[in-house]
Amino acid sequence: MGLPTLEFSDSYLDSPDFRERLKCHEVELERTNKFIKELIKDGSLLIGALRNLSMAVQKFSQSLQDFQFECIGDAETDDEISIAQSLKEFARLLIAVEEERRRLIQNANDVLIAPLEKFRKEQIGAAK
């Protein structure tokens, strides 16, 4: 449907019809402002959770890289060597994934959260 139009010339008359249309616009501005605020809040919480996840995965990856089998006897078995190499390779893959996640998190903040906050403050705030 859409909002009824507001004509500057109608503001001079200050009719009840104009006031009703103006009220519709004010209600929509407030609704949009609240929605964007919630979106920013939820996005920020998500980014925080992703940062925490990233730190936990990095710690796990470091633990995998640091893992060493305790040998019984003079040398590691072929299975022990294979498992240790697999853990180190898995750790390297996790690190690569986390580097990309860090970029994604930074992009989300720079491309989504900051512009939304700027729009809400500058555009909606000015219109109010």
From TrEMBL:
Short name of one Pfam family: BAR_3
Signal peptide interval? none
SUPFAM superfamilies, per the entry:
BAR/IMD domain-like (SSF103657)
Q: Which residues form the BAR domain?
A: 6-128
Q: Which domain of life is it from?
A: Eukaryota
Q: What is this protein called?
A: Rho GTPase-activating protein 42-like
Species the sequence originates in: Gekko japonicus (Schlegel's Japanese gecko)
